[in-house]
From TrEMBL:
SUPFAM superfamilies: Winged helix' DNA-binding domain. The keyword Cytoplasm does not apply. Keywords: DNA-binding, Transcription, Transcription regulation. It comes from Cellulomonas cellasea DSM 20118. Gene3D superfamilies: Winged helix-like DNA-binding domain superfamily/Winged helix DNA-binding domain. It comes from the Bacteria. This is ArsR family transcriptional regulator. The lineage of its organism: Bacteria, Bacillati, Actinomycetota, Actinomycetes, Micrococcales. It holds the Pfam family HTH_5. Transmembrane segments: none annotated. Residues 12-106 form the HTH arsR-type domain.
Amino acid sequence: MHADTQVNDLPLDSPYVELAVEVFAMLADATRVRIILALRDGELAVGELATAVGKSPTAVSQHLAKLRLARMVTTRHDGNRVYYTLADEHARRLVVDAVLQAEHAIDSHPRHHGRADA
């Protein structure tokens, strides 16, 4: 069964609605959104993520801890290094879709709709 069909059958009083709100709350932070975007192509270590999102490794580690608790990222240890990856495709899709929706708020002809000047 396709995920969209499953969602269309989801009752309004589903307990998953409350959990979905928690997912959105977790993503209501620009650094965490940037971390998800940085991880969309594969795993990265904290230092690489810090460079990618323009934050200190300590700050990125704190955000990653929250994302781990929310089960949005997983880790792999290699010696002293810890690599992070997205736990599944859903967080990436949520963030990418949110960014695409944001383009609509700014531009009447968003880039993802194939603007002539893009």
